Every structure is written in structure tokens, then in C-alpha cells.
Protein 1
Amino acid sequence: MDNIIEVNNLIKKYGENTVIDDISFNVNKGEIFALLGANGAGKTTTLECIEKLRSYNSGTIKINGKIGVQLQSSSLPENITVIEAFKLFCKWNNTIEDLELLDKLGLKDLKNKQYNTLSTGQKRRLHLALALIGSPDIIFLDEPTAGVDVEGRVALHDEIRKLKKQGITIIMASHDMAEVEELCDRIAILKNGKIAFIGTPIELTSIYLEEKVYIKTSSKIEIQNFKYSKYIEIKEEYYIFKTDTISDALLELLTYLKENNNKVLDLKIERESLEHRFIQIAKEEV
């Protein structure tokens, strides 16, 4: 896929403190890309550099399209109405007032409500609408569902998926690992100003040791010392094995069962969650 954002050898310092330490990555056109990191890892500074909200010491950032930004918190006046905010941002962006955008995001019936009377979910939808003014190619979403209830979260996720289908590239920052795993094509994890991991959520959950294989069979397995799969226990009719080489372990187990005319009734692979992998990376020594 074509790169819509290219970050090369980015360095940002505050005095003698290096907060972004020579990082490089690309974002593909039309993908949902998450930039993750613990507090102080440098993700917010990186995003602000890409958004042109903050200068940097060296490196290059190439953006091949127009951007829109949905900030985590807003400085909108409390008494401004939805339609007033919308018209104000349209004027700033020198674009027509397309009220259909408010309708698409469920804000049409709220257009005369003041900002301070909106729920958290409604405010998030308004922030997203303001970011979409001017038909940007790239949208930055900072904690898009923070503080939103379950119903609002589902609605916002649906809107994010619709944007992706329209070919819009989405850059997310989120502490909600379930959200990241559900929505994102790729993720980058920052640690101490460096990229500790970049790849798909599945790749992240596959890079550590000791995955578990749950297997239910038509007859008893004679437990023995397999080379790649180590027997742990039987639980709810499943034999449970752990392994650090899942493909070799599966081949070993299935070959054994076939040679012994033992049918596989069910097979499951258990990996640690994305959140657990993220925590593991955060705790690793650099």
C-alpha cells in the first residue's frame, strides 16, 4: 500500500532530555494505525509533531494528504451550541457548511444544544464531526471513546469503521487495548522515546513464549514427552499443552493422533491478550 505518512529519524528534545529518540515508521493509506505507549513514552509528542502542533529537532515527516484532528479534550466554550461550533470550524477551514455531516454522526437533533449540556458520547461525536470538516484524508483520534458508555462506544466504533471504508486513514492513540485490537490494522508501541514494536495486533500476541493448545479427542491420549508440546492438565475434557513453537507443536500433536487413530473433536489455541503483551513490553529492560 502507498504510504500516506512517512516519519524518518525523528528526534525531539526538551533541553537535554530526548523524548523522541530517532524513530522511523510509515502509515499506509486507508489503514487504522495506533500509536501506543505508557505515560511519558513519547506518543503524544510524536503525534503533535506529525500534526504540526510541535516543532522537532531533526528528522523528516512527510504527509501525503489533508489532516483533521480530534483532540482528547476540547477547549470549546461551554455555552456554544453544536451548530455554532460547526459553522465556526467551517469558516476556519474555508469550506461549505454541509449539515449532512451532523446528520451522519447523529447530531442533527442536537444542533441547538449547548456544549456543556451534551453527554460525553455526544461531545466525542461533535469532536469527530469538527475533525471531518473539509474532507480530510487523515484523521487523528486521541482517546476517541474515553469516558463514553458502552452504547456510545459501539456507535463511535461504527463511525470509525465507516471512515475506513471511505478510504480515510486513521491514526489513534488509546489506552483501551480491546478497542485497539478490535479496530486497528497495525500498532506501534513507544517506550522511552523509541519504537519497541511495530506490526499487527496478531503479530504482537504471537511473539512471546508459551502459547496453550486445548485439544479434545475421541479417545485417551497416552501422555508422553513430546518434543514441542508440554502436557499441563486435563480440564473440561480438553488436554492442555503449552509450547513456545505453536506450528511444530500442532504438527507433533496431530501426527501423534493420526498415527493412533484418535480423532480431533475440538482444537483451540490460547494466547495472552494484547493488553498483557503491552504490559510485558512496558516492563522489559531496554
Note: The chain has two domains: 3-204, 207-270.
Protein 2
Amino acid sequence: MFSYLANPQRFEKFARIAIPVCGVLALCLIIAGLWVGLFASPVDRYQGDTIRIMYVHVPAAWLGLALYFAMGGASFVYFIWRHNLADVAAASIAPIGAVFAALCLISGSLWGKTTWGTWWVWDARLTSMLIQLLLFLGYIALRAAIEEERLAARSAAILAMVGLVNLPIVRFSVEWWDGILHQGATVFRADGPAIHGSQLLPLALMGIGFTFLAGWMVLYRMRSAILTRKATNLQRLREARA
């Protein structure tokens, strides 16, 4: 996929179609998910209306992990094969992943205050997700701190690949450390989802909608970064000829 899209014309053609498609799908799905989640789904027996925070919290958590996995994978491709598109992808994903990871923690704190009576506890899931956010921020800071572009890209790629170790820790922290504040998997289970269909529908709509939203933002940032690099190279070429 990276090899095919490495050609600027191919990527431009793909992005020109994919960006508006992802944007429209994200808008429609999120609006539908919010309407179903806020107005059509029932109140939870134990948590009342606060259960509706789940429709933002869970998709944000999913994307916080998925985007880091994508960033780590792109960083691996760049580090091994020096694929410039992979580096652009990783750099474009980082701030978007940080936003979703932060949204997960913020919405989780709001949910925790009403459910547990506290904004924060050093639960294994919460702590590992905080580390996930710090890894995103560390990647961004490391790239910004090194002036030489290739050295910055390689150093940040190493950090991104090392940070992949944290993904299974976040995913399985509840099972490994017997978390009492977070429950195990309720959607992707071998015996089927453990939540009612009235809650599963808005959760699915929001999850897919957030995924298309993330795709829209990543592709938009990638396209902007490629155009910026092209303009910079043209400017350098003109200065060299002058």
C-alpha cells in the first residue's frame, strides 16, 4: 500500500477522493450515534444518564490505541525501508492520536467522578493509558527538538516502535492486574457482546464515526505535509539556482 501510494500523483488522487468521503461518513455516523445515544437509548439501571459518556469514552480509547499502532507500524516501515510516505503518516498521526488519548482520559475522569466518586485513581488501565498519551506527546516533542529532519524522523521512529510495548499492557491490564474499576471486554468477546443492543448500536455508530473522523484528519494532515514539503523543495531549488 505504501509502495503504491508513494508516488505523489497516486497519493494526491487517492486523498482527493478519500478525504471528503471520510469526512461525510464521519459526520453522518457521529450525528446518528449522538442522536441514538442521547435520545433513543435507555437510561442505565445503575449509572443512569452518565452511561452515555461511554459513547465518547470507548471510541476515543479505541482510537488512542489503534492510532498508536498505526504510528508504530508506519515508523517501522520508515526505519527499515526509509519510506518517506510512512514517515509522513507517522508524523501526521501523532497529534491526532494524542487528542483521542486525551479525550479518553478526560471523558473517563468525568465518568469516574460520577461512578467512583473521584476524578482519578492509579488504576492499571488509567495509568497505562496516561503513559500512552505521554508516548504520543514524547514523539511530537522529540521530532520538534531535533533540527536535522532525517535524524528527527529516525529518533522518533525508534521511540514509536518502543512504545508499542505499552499497547498490550493497556489492552490486558484489567485481566493481568485484576482491575476493580474497569471491566473486561464487553464488545469483542468469543461468546458475543455482553451489552444490550440498545447500547451497542450507538456505541458502534460512534466507534465507526470516530474511525472515519480520524482517517479524515490523518489523510488531510498527510496531504498538507506532502504539499508543504514539495513547496519547500521548490523554494530551495529556486534559491540554489539564484
Note: The domain at 23-43+53-236 is CATH 1.20.120 (Four Helix Bundle (Hemerythrin (Met), subunit A)).
Protein 3
Amino acid sequence: MRGYLILLLNLIVYGIRAQSDFRITRPEYFEIYHNMAIIEMHRSGVPASITLAQGALESADGNSSLAREANNHFGIKCHEDWSGKRTFQDDDARNECFRRYGSVEDSFKDHSDYLRAKTRYSFLFDLDKGDYKGWAKGLKKAGYATNPAYAESLIRIIEEFGLHKYDGIEIEDIAEHKKPGHPGKIGSLRETGEINRVKFIRAGTGDTYESLAAELGKLNWELPQFNDASLIDPIDPGQIVYIQPKRNRARAGQNFYKVKSGETMQIVSRQFAVKLDRLYDMNRMKPGSQPEPGTVLNLRNTIKSSRVPDQGSPEKISGGDEEDVIRVDLNLE
């Protein structure tokens, strides 16, 4: 019993720590995505301040499940004209259809295109791009959100964080800022850790896979491949970034893991340094599907069942001694 209580306490402590590691603060959100918003402003005419404020508000600063799992930062639903990938979440009604994107950049681009394509927003493009108050009130008037205080929320965010400064930046002026990272800080000076005999570093604010590759002397494709990501995927400040290939299974003794609320296969893959495709294979899960909370994932061996579920994973704990079922090394760092 004492061992079970210690394990439970460790799980709770680690869960809290893991959540804090992967959450983006609002200032960090604007630092990560402001160049993307400026580029979209010059391409589409949507003020960068509006794009950033909407993205932060709609995605909980990039931390919502819709943003993390579907790269949807603006809460845009499928609608009849959407032919791309989909995801389903409860919103105004149960199990509503939302657009799923391959990258955050795709989400930002589709947000701009969505506003330009819908006639009810056309009057907004007659406003000056610096008129963020007019845009905020116009979005509410046109029905972008049901919250009666939506315009005031956008204006408050823009003014609190000075986002209107981005509305006056020309496209050529962002060249310098498109090279995030830490000038003069070479890879050997970065603090490294090791999980499952795979070395990793912690990302800093503004790091990208491209900037880290240049800093560490890696080819552009290496870090994204090591982390089951694409070159343009954003990296959260504090996130683990592997600088070596992950392994095909977890280390000895880490046989199973019980999924907690909000965790995805990508998060579990990152926690145990196991390749994402192998994690899906071992659990006979459809690539892209996600486990339900309470699901027990195999980390070292392929399950015997031949069933391939459409969603979720093959096994959930239902009674028994959890201390015998969950064998997790919590000292990941």
C-alpha cells in the first residue's frame, strides 16, 4: 500500500511538472508567432494585431487541445466548403466538426483566407489596417464569436501587449527577426539531458528546428525526424528536443504507461523517447488516433490482439492492482 501511495504521489507531481513544461505563456505566444502574423497581414490584409489577439484568445495561447492536436488556432469549424482533414470536439454542441491543419502556418493562412472569402467580413477590408478597434468590433458584429465581450477582449489583449506595433511593420523589416535562437550560444554550451539513452536539449523562447539545426551543426531534416515533427512545426519554450534518434521501445522496466487527461501519443512518445510510429505499431493503433485517459499503452512490446481500433488504444485499466500494471520510471531528467 505504501508503495502504491508513493507511486501515485510521483505521478501527480510529474503530471504537474510535465504540464508546466509544455505550456506557452501569452508573451511567448506573441514572440513565437508575430512574424507569421505580419507575413499574413501583407498577403491578405488582415492586421497582424488582430490575427495574434484572435489566435491567443481562441487557442488559449496555443495550449488548447484543438491547437495542440489539430493546429487549429482560431476555432474555425468545418462548414460545408471545407474538404480538408477534420477533428471533432464539444463546443456550442456536442461533437462539432473543426478543421485540422498540417501546421500552425496553415492555420494562420486559412484564418486570413476564411475572412477574405466570407462576404459578411468584406467590409472589414475597407478599414485601415491600423484600425484594430474597428476590426475587433466588426468581427463581433459579423458574428465571428458568440461572446458579447469578444471585441473588448481583443482590444484589451492588443493594448495590454502592444500588438498594434506589428501593424506598421513592413515585410522586409522582419528579415532579422526570422532568425530566432540564441546568437553566440553554441550547442556545447546548451544543457543536455538523456531519456532512454537518447540525448535532448530544452528549447528556449524563439527556437525553431531550423535555428537549432544551424546552432548544433545538424542538417535541416535531422531534428524534425528525431522528434517526429516537420521543419515548420513550432517548438514550445521548455520543450524537450531530441538531438539523436529516439528508440524503438522504452528502456527496460518501462513496460506500460497509463495515459492522463490531455496527453497525446506525441506527448507519450516524447516522455519516453520512443519513436511515434513504433508506439502506434506496438499498440496496434491507427496513426493519428489518440488514446482516451486511463488507457494503458505498451512501451516495449507489441500487444497480441490483432484488433486495430479507429480511435483510442487497446486496453484500459478496470480494477486490479495498478502498482503491478504501471511500471514507469518517473525520473526522466
Note: The chain has three domains: 26-176, 179-242, 247-325.
